[in-house]
């Protein structure tokens, strides 16, 4: 990676349309470390070598996740800054501060009753399916995956329907660059009310466990860890549901009336996590000083982004039958690896199974090559998943 090499901009429709072609071209030209721009004028290094990624992910001393030096160098209105800047949470800290947040975060997630979560997903899925099953058509992203994931999260954190609606409104505005500041304020006000409620009246939920953990988190620390919990779940789980459904709707191995298909929903999930993980490029670190890796100097305080998709498809580890293979990096790795993978697997698999049990004859309503993908440096997300199916009477609500 020579200093004069032109940087490859990730935030383009062309990259979104064919990321794997771009990764192959990157590998031919640059090897495992690629000079990129996350958005115009924001330089970074993209890691597309699997073993190099593992080395970086497991070396928090040289590759910490604290972005504060970096963010001082970018404008306040930089479009990727809200996603990458420092907050008092587990995602954006290192060392003992990270360990304190992480312990509270993991304990709050580990307390989720996975057996009860099956019933929660079913209770949320059936009314959603009933909103479109008699129409014979649906956009499964907008009408099913996103609202299901959001409502399941509200249940996990102990959010009332009224507070949940305010959280949803704030989150939507946060991702709208025009209303982002209002969205953050609206979201924060709703979650601070939830935090006060759960400090006074604890329940069996993530917020209550965070509020009463021995780490003794402040309201501000709780707020940003809860925002991180929502952010780490909404986009990845929504995309994982839709990307997996796309595979199952277009691959003959999952055909034959889904219940009789040769491969299971879990097999499809693992294949998507290898080939098209919902967060394609993430696990961002910021070297404290220049670091030499793979014969390349990585600058101090400049983002190093792991391409979870690129690394999973590294030819040095690819090939052979991946059936049952879960060595992919879709959950990250090292001290910042996703602590909620068991919960995420369960929610996504149950969401898909509920849908396919209710509507087994789903099919795409447009050719696969006419589906469009949202531009962005981090996610792998369709703009929608339009389907058709025989009209079906409403299901009995539990």
Describe this structure in words.
The protein has 398 residues and is of the alpha+beta class. The chain has a single domain (8-158, 203-388), classed as Cytochrome p450, CATH 1.10.630. Helices cover 48% and strands 9% of the residues. The chain contains 15 helices and ten strands. It has a five-stranded mixed beta sheet. A hairpin with a 5-residue loop joins strand 2 (33-37) and strand 3 (43-47). Helix 12 packs across helix 13. The chain is globular. The chain starts with 7 loop residues before the first strand and ends in a 10-residue tail after the last strand. The mean pLDDT is 91.
Q: How many distinct helices?
A: 15
Low-pLDDT windows of residues: none
Average of the residue pLDDT scores:
91
Strand order of the largest sheet: 1-2-3-8-5
Percentage of residues in strands: 5-15%
Q: Categorize the overall geometry.
A: globular
The biggest beta sheet reads: 5 strands, mixed
Within the CATH hierarchy, at the fold level, what is the topology? Cytochrome p450
Helix content: 40-55%
Q: What is the CATH domain class?
A: Mainly Alpha
Q: From the 3D coordinates, which CATH architecture would you assign?
A: Orthogonal Bundle
Give me the Rg, rounded.
21 Å
Distance between the termini: 58 Å
Helix/strand-derived category reads: alpha+beta
CATH superfamily: Cytochrome P450
Count of DSSP strands: 10
Element string (H = helix, E = strand)? EHHEEHHHHHEHHHHHHEEEEHHEE
The number of domains: 1
Give the helices and strands, then pairings.
Blueprint: E1 8-9, H1 13-17, H2 19-30, E2 33-37, E3 43-47, H3 50-57, H4 68-71, H5 81-84, H6 95-110, H7 114-130, E4 137-139, H8 140-157, H9 161-174, H10 180-200, H11 206-211, H12 219-250, H13 265-275, E5 281-285, E6 291-293, E7 296-298, E8 304-307, H14 308-312, H15 341-358, E9 363-364, E10 386-388
Parallel strand pairs: 1-2, 3-8
Antiparallel strand pairs: 2-3, 4-10, 5-8, 6-7, 9-10
């Amino acid at each position: 990676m020579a200093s004069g090499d032109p940087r490859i901009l990730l935030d383009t429709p062309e990259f979104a349309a064919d990321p794997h072609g771009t990764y192959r071209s990157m590998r031919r030209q640059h090897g495992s470390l690629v000079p990129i721009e996350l958005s115009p004028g924001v330089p970074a290094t993209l890691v597309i070598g699997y073993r190099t990624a593992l080395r970086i992910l497991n070396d928090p001393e040289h590759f910490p996740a604290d972005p504060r030096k970096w963010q001082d160098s970018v404008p306040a209105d930089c479009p990727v800054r809200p996603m990458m800047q420092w907050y008092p949470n587990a995602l954006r800290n290192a060392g003992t501060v990270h360990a304190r947040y992480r312990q509270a975060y993991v304990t709050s997630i580990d307390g989720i009753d996975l057996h009860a979560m099956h019933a929660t997903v079913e209770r949320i899925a059936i009314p959603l399916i009933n909103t479109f099953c008699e129409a014979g058509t649906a956009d499964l992203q907008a009408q099913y995956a996103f609202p299901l994931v959001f409502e399941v999260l509200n249940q996990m954190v102990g959010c009332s329907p009224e507070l949940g609606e305010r959280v949803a409104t704030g989150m939507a505005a946060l991702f709208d660059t025009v209303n982002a500041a209002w969205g953050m304020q609206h979201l924060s006000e709703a979650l601070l009310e939830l935090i006060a409620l759960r400090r006074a009246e604890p329940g069996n939920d993530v917020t209550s466990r965070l509020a009463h953990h021995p780490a003794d988190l402040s309201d501000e620390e709780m707020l940003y860890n809860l925002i991180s919990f929502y952010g780490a779940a909404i986009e990845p789980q929504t995309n994982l549901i839709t990307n997996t459904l796309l595979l199952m709707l277009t691959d003959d191995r999952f055909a034959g009336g889904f219940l009789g298909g040769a491969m299971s929903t879990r097999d499809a999930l693992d294949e998507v996590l290898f080939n098209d993980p919902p967060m394609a490029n993430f696990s961002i670190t910021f070297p404290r000083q220049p670091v030499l890796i793979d014969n390349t100097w990585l600058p101090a305080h400049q983002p190093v982004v792991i391409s979870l998709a690129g690394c999973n498809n590294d030819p040095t580890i690819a090939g052979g039958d991946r059936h049952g293979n879960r060595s992919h990096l879709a959950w990250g790795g090292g001290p910042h690896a996703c602590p909620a993978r068991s919960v995420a697997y369960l929610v996504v698999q149950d969401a898909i199974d509920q849908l396919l049990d209710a509507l087994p004859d789903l099919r795409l309503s447009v050719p696969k090559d006419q589906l469009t993908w949202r531009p962005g440096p981090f996610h792998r997300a369709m703009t929608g998943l339009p389907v058709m199916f025989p009209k079906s009477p409403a299901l009995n609500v539990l």
